[in-house]
């Protein structure tokens, strides 16, 4: 029998793996499986017990352990992950751009607000990382670090996402036509000039 070499996980590593395993759902199952392998490998140090606990083949177990020795985050990288947040990618990007968030906890709250989906901080972290979110020059998380909208205390900026939703539901290839529709639908913004309206609603026009 192949002799197992201990991983010597720290208590913090074990806790991290345990938290991921206990958060299993359809979005992160591909992450949970290798975490279970690593966790039980460290716990049992007996290949047959690991196979019995996880139902994973001997070859796959040793492959995951080898990868973990090289990179403790390998399970999050180079994999196809279809999150139920994927269909909201553009909604999230716009929300973060229009209304700045400066922490993962605020990002978690915002994502729940705009999508109705409640994600753990770990899931939010990896969703943002996978979609190239990073802090911009103002210190807020945006896609590729793009600048936030320079907001003004006007009806246009206070209702930018509501107006944007109206544009998406009533599209036009002609910006001028669309701006006129918006001004008729939301007369409070008529005091804004067309250039300001186009700038504020750039992502939707």
| Helix-and-strand structural type | mainly alpha
* Binned strand content: under 5%
Helix content estimate: 55-70%
Overall shape: it is: elongated
Terminal Cα span = 65 Å
- Overall residue-averaged pLDDT value: 85
Instruction: State the strand order across the main sheet.
Output: 1-2
What does this structure look like?
This protein is mostly helical and 205 residues long. 55% of the residues lie in helices and 3% in strands. The chain is built from 11 helices and 2 strands, in the order αααααααββαααα. It has helices at 11-22, 29-44, 47-54, 58-70, 89-98, 104-115, 121-130, 155-158, 160-169, 175-185, 194-200; strands spanning 133-135, 141-143. Strands 1-2 form a two-stranded antiparallel ribbon. Strand 1 (133-135) and strand 2 (141-143) form a beta hairpin. Helix 1 (11-22) crosses helix 2. The longest helix is centred in the N-terminal third of the chain and has 16 residues, at 29-44. It is elongated and about 75 Å long. The model has no long low-confidence stretch (mean pLDDT 85).
């Amino acid at each position: 029998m192949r002799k197992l070499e201990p991983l010597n996980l720290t208590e913090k590593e074990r806790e991290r793996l345990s938290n991921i395993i206990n958060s299993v759902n359809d979005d992160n199952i591909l992450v949970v499986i290798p975490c279970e392998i690593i966790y039980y490998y460290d716990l049992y140090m007996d290949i047959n017990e690991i196979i019995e606990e996880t139902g994973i083949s001997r070859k796959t177990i040793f492959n995951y352990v080898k990868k973990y020795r090289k990179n403790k985050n390998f399970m999050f990288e180079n994999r196809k992950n279809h999150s139920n947040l994927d269909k909201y990618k553009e909604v999230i990007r716009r929300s973060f751009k229009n209304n700045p968030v400066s922490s993962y906890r605020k990002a978690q709250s915002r994502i729940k607000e705009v999508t109705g989906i409640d994600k753990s901080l770990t899931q939010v972290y990896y969703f943002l990382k996978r979609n190239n979110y990073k802090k911009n020059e103002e210190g807020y998380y945006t896609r590729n670090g793009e600048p936030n909208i320079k907001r003004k205390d006007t009806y246009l900026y206070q209702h930018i996402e509501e107006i944007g939703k109206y544009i998406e539901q009533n599209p036009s290839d002609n910006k001028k036509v669309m701006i006129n529709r918006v001004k008729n639908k939301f007369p409070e913004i008529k005091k804004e000039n067309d250039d300001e309206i186009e700038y504020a609603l750039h992502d939707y026009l």
